Amino acid sequence: MVTTPDIDLKNLTIEDSISHLKEKFGAAVSDDTRAGYSGVVIDKSKLREVAAYAKGVLGFDYLSNLTAVDYLGEANHTTDDHIEMVYHAYRTTGGGALCFKAQTDRNDAVVPSLVPVWRGADFQEREVYDLYGVKFTDHPHLQRILLWDGFHGHPMRKDWKEAYYEDDHKPFDSRWPGGHVHRAEEKNIFGSNVKYPADIDLSRLADVSDEKIYQSFGVGIDSEVLTADHGGIETNQLVVNMGPHHPSTHGVFRMVMTLDGEEVKQLEPVMGYLHRNHEKIGERNTWLHNIPFTDRLDYISSMGNNHGYVLAVEQLLVQNPRWKKPTYRAEVLRVLMVELTRIVNHLWAIGFWLNDLGAFFTPVLYFIQERERILDFFEAVAGSRMMCNYMRFGGVFADLPQRLRSVANLMNDRVRDYNTMQFLTEMINERIPRTIDELDEYLTDSEIIKSRTIGVGFLSAADAIDFSTAGPVLRGSGVAYDVRRAEPYSIYPELDFDVAVRPEGDMYARYMVRVQEMRESVRILKQILPRLEYTAGESASDNNSAYADKVPLGESYGRVENPKGELGYYVVSAGDKKATGNPWRYHVRAPSFINLTPLGHMSRGHKVADVVAILGSIDIVLGETDR
Amino acid sequence: MAGQGFIKGMMLTLRHFLKSYAEDFRYGLRRYAPDVNNFETRQGTEAEGVFTVQYPEEKVAAPERFRFVPFLVVQDWDDELNPGKDWCTSCGICAKVCPPQCIWIVRTEDPVTGRPIPEPEAFFIDIDICMNCGFCAEFCPFDAIKMDHDYELASYDRTSNHIFDKPKLSKEFRYWKQIAPTRAEEEAKVRGSWEHKNFAKSWNTSKPTAAGEATDEKEMKREEVRSRKAAAEPTQATVNPAPEAAATSSGSASAPAGDAGTAPWNESADEKEKRKQAALARKAARAAKKDGE
User: Fold this and answer.
1) Whole-prediction pTM value?
2) Which residues of chain B does A545 touch, with a Cβ-Cβ cutoff of 8 Å?
3) Of residues A401, A445, A545, nearest to B5 (C-beta)
4) Is the Cβ of A402 closer than 8 Å to some Cβ of chain B?
């Protein structure tokens, strides 16, 4: 890293960084002056130089988020229709985002790729190419990532309509007051709902994505690659498809590998089997509608997903003078739920990672005993075990009930009844620590675990940052970066906890980070208990009656430290008055998706059985990866 | 020493294995008897070992806030003033806040004037689309749509069975009071009466005296006590599993409130109609008596 002497990296604020950029690049960098927007707009021809300068000189080494927005027909912020690339870069030493944008024409959308600067841009740029049709020059492997190769069009563009398209925005007028029920599929699937181009070329229905993958490996369908001879014997490399239906891939996920013997030479993750264009659905929805949809991203930790989304929207809502901030009790409840979720997630992650290592389901069952009780608590408070849908803008769904009571009705003839605070106190002070101790005793010193995991799946600290990994993967590589500390939100600044970090960078380090994080979560929860006591009676849901909030114009990027890593939501409120009832853009920075970027890098040189465990140690959920 | 960690792990596995039989030793074969209330003990905070809930013979109890596909609250069928009347006013808020847009409402319109009447002509929920988020119940200003606890909705034919219409969705208010006693009480306090907002209003306008309000309040308190008692009953049975209770309760009697056949909200349309007619007859008789006086 070349640091010019006149830049004091330690005290460099975002404003200083921006003025440095302007000084260096002159007219190519200009302030984003649109209402509610921040950061700078960069001339796209200079994009890569600016990014390299921001990374190398200004120290923004971590590219958190990269996405695009289609401003077709948006009248409030822009006069011309264009696609805008949005980048959020951070310093791993902490602090706010350097947000920079580049605009490009819709019909000929080309932007220089940032993969040469941050390798973490790889999958994210492929996603933008896939969904927006923006071409990235010099991208090493620019292919569709979530959709199949024969897919027509780029669905996130505003002028692309889905099958059974009804309206741009919910609520649909057909539901009330003359709501005569119909099913979407009752409509003729080849009717005007589905747009086929007049010059339809049926050959595009032939999927060539597989051939493309194999060719990118240098293994064409009809070419043979001979490896170096093994003791005089000539051997072929073998292409193996693992998944999409494979028990070790935690869902429908596929890895294409080239093997030399049992050694992985190259690995390419293939995903999108669970893709439903969550973000397009999110743009149709109202702001409120999106909360239960976020539950379905990382369905193991839905409370955390809720939290990230409401934080992002609340950043916009504060501009509204009538809007009330969440009360202290609401914040306490949010942190309580999120930290319990973290424990749930890590118990689950470690359990299934053990499955991948071959300890089939015995450890999982031991760990999810405690998870069950936490989910019982979620069910009694939020109404559902996994799809919690608990947080609202400016508060939470409802305060804790006095008693966690199950009622007898025609379905259930037996009843449970606990005092909520007593249940929580017992759980946090005794049962969860007991489970974690047991897990620790069970696994940490086990010779089998150690010999399978130490030194396997190595990712160096520099690579971990460069690949934009987050969460335990990043911290397992010795980078003490936790959003709760780096850019604190909610009531985390006043809570006492440490960032779990291990320097080794292998699977065992990631496991140790998870165990340590659970202990830190318990530490936080113990501080939450007295806060719950003395805020008792305070309102937890002041804004609940507002079901049709208009969100002030602007953009915001809200991020939280979800158990799987940094979960970010980039939301834009734009358009006319009517349109502010719905997000103009709703983007999810999914940690499971971006953490997969270095999978090939980590797996190279290991055995197939290790690849399974390496994937388990990243801890992905396909609901979030494919969105 | 090499192998120490491994042995430690195996010991732990053994401990778990033995623990899973701890409850068996505690209960003996009674564990498998259908009428013994040891289920909540095994589910309780002190329980040890993994066990399997023998679904569908056993079911995990659902907490009050548990939410599944919504239902429409209607006045009890034996209510004398408004038997079986919808609480829904077809204001359309539930249809608007529904994230997957699975609610369809037809508003009733006066055939003569064309003005809207505050009750739904038709109400549909496509339960295949419903995502059980609970927004409709949360934002309903009339407490007219509530989330149900009945999660066994599987059927052989989704096209004919999975779009719920108004008769299928409607459940009596007493059902809501039973599945969510605490919340029903809280909501009634906010409304100021056990009655539906609009019914209460008409009640108050027809009887604008202070005495009328007082009786209403009294009635509400009485209801409160009754519902609390109802809620407490099964709990007491759990706390003191009296030997004679175990002896007497067998088969269907083990489900204190759960006898699906006789529960009023499970009645057929005919029976509902019968009860409605009986209520109306009682009302008419009382009115006639009053006129006679």
Assistant:
1) 0.82
2) 139
3) A445
4) yes
- Which CATH number belongs to the domain containing residue A57 in this structure? 3.30.460.80
Model confidence at A371, pLDDT cuts 50, 70, 90, reads: confident
Is the pLDDT confidence value at B240 over 50?
no
Q: Mind listing the pLDDT tens digit for each residue in A514-550?
A: 999 999 999 999 999 999 888 887 777 765 556 667 7
Any CB–CB contact under 8 A between A292 and chain B? Answer: yes
Residue A537, Ramachandran bin (φ over 0: left; ψ between -120 and 50: alpha; else beta): left
Please check whether residues B55 and B74 belong to one and the same domain.
no
- How far CA A238 is from CA of A124, A327, A483, in Å, comes to 29, 59, 42
Cβ–Cβ gap A405/B263 under 8 Å: no
A95-99, A454-458, B273-277: segment of lowest average pLDDT: B273-277
Q: Do A177 and B106 touch (CB under 8 A)?
A: yes
Which among B61, B84, B112 is the end of a domain? B61
The pLDDT of residue A222 is above 80? no
Closest CA to A88 of A109, A69, A108, A110: A69
Burial of A130 (0-12, 13-18, 19+ CB in 10 A): buried
Residues B91 and B161 in one domain: yes
Where do runs of H (alpha helix) occur along A383-458? Answer: 420-426, 432-443, 447-453
Interface mutation vs chain A, best among B55, B138, B239, most A CBs within 10 Å: B138
CB contact under 8 A, A383 and B150: no
Chain A's closest residue to B98, CA to CA, is A289
User: Could you say which of A121, A137, A153 is where a domain stops?
Assistant: A137
Same domain, B103 and B51: no
B101 and A170 in contact by Cβ < 8 A?
yes
A523's tokens: 């530490």
CB contact (8 A) between residue A175 and residue B63: no
**Nearest-CA distance B199 → chain A (Å):** 23
A367 close to A437: Cβ distance less than 8 angstroms: no
- Does residue B8 sit in the same domain as residue B25? yes
Residue B211: predicted pLDDT: 43
User: A101: helix, coil or strand?
Assistant: strand
Query: Are B204 and B282 in a shared domain?
Result: yes
Going by C-alpha positions, the residue among B144, B130, B124 that lies closest to residue B99 is B130
At residue A516, the pLDDT reads 92
B39 and B164 in a single domain? The answer is no
**B55 pLDDT above the threshold of 70:** yes
Write down which residue in A137, A160, A183 finishes a domain. A137
Phi/psi at A417 (nearest 5 deg)? -155, 110
Pure H helices in A301-417:
302-317, 328-357, 362-382
Check whether residue B74 and residue B43 sit in a common domain: no
> Does a structural domain hold residue A268?
no
Q: For residue A44, what are the domain limits?
A: 9-137
Domain span holding position B55: 1-61
Lowest mean pLDDT among A291-305, B227-241, B265-279: B227-241
pLDDT of the residue at A577: 64
Residue with tokens 């569709």: A144
If one counts the domains in chain A, the total is 2
Identify any residues that bridge with A560 across adjacent strands, giving them in sequence order.
A567
